[in-house]
From TrEMBL:
A Pfam family assignment: ECH_1
Record GO terms (molecular function): catalytic activity
Annotated GO biological process: fatty acid beta-oxidation
InterPro entries: ClpP/crotonase-like_dom_sf, Enoyl-CoA_hydra/iso
Protein name, per record: Enoyl-CoA hydratase/carnithine racemase
Length: 243
């Protein structure tokens, strides 16, 4: 579990970025079978501390985004297990972009989301626009980014950005993560690899990698055990170990 707990607003200052980078590095080094990202406090995050941007040159700004892609967004997406984000309140800028790098986003009814970088003359640069476009379409991605407006959980659920809305989102997210962690972890990783191939190269590329990615599952303990369980006692009784 990765929890944002950095003062009343969970602002992404350098210390917060460093902590998240360290946590993701630890998850990458020893991947669990499922991950939950959540926050403490009234808000998930009020965004980035603007001091992070003050006085940067063009090259320094570009390097900042390169580092955040390389150390947060890309390794988070590459974790070989399901990653769930729980938004219980306001979720702005960096936190929203991090949620979009997760596999599943759950939200409370009162949660609000926004990419409000236009207030400082910036565009979201941790992958938000393109990941929004993937989930909701390019027109809605441009609207959300260009207006800088806040959007409620129900609206983003109707757009396909939020997967589900729950009154007790923390409990729902914990239950989902526990369920996914008990599942066929290697198969979940294969699903992520196939979807990633589609994202980078379309259906043809995903089709090309599927035989190898899926074929490897036939040598896993989980598949062999689940097939045997299905044949012996019927569906839904297999126990998975993640191997």
């Amino acid at each position: 579990m990765l929890t944002f707990a950095h003062g009343p607003l969970n602002l992404f200052d350098q210390a917060m970025f460093d902590a998240v980078i360290a946590d993701i590095a630890s998850l990458t080094a020893a991947p669990p079978r499922a991950v939950l990202l959540r926050a403490e406090g009234k808000v998930n995050s009020a965004g980035v501390d603007v001091h992070v941007f003050d006085g940067l040159t063009a090259e320094q700004g570009a390097e900042l985004w390169r580092e955040l892609f390389a150390q947060i967004c890309h390794p988070l997406e590459a974790l070989p297990c399901p990653v769930v984000y729980a938004a219980h309140g306001l979720t702005l800028t960096a936190a929203f972009e991090i949620s979009l790098a997760c596999d599943i986003i759950l939200a409370a009814p009162k949660a609000k989301f926004g990419l409000v970088e236009t207030v400082v003359g910036l565009t979201p640069s941790m992958g938000g626009p393109q990941r929004l476009a993937e989930r909701a379409g390019s027109g809605r991605a441009r609207e959300l980014v260009m207006t800088g407006d806040l959007y409620d959980a129900a609206t983003l659920a109707s757009w396909g950005v939020v997967n589900a809305v729950h009154d007790d989102v923390d409990a729902a997210a914990r239950a989902l993560v526990a369920r996914l962690a008990d599942g066929p972890t290697r198969a979940h990783d294969a699903t992520k690899q196939i979807v990633a191939a589609w994202r980078s190269g379309g259906i043809a590329h995903a089709d090309a990698v599927t035989p190898t990615v899926s074929g490897a599952l036939f040598e896993t303990e989980d598949l062999r055990g689940a097939v045997r369980s299905f044949l012996d006692v019927g569906p839904g009784k297999a126990v998975y170990t993640g191997k």
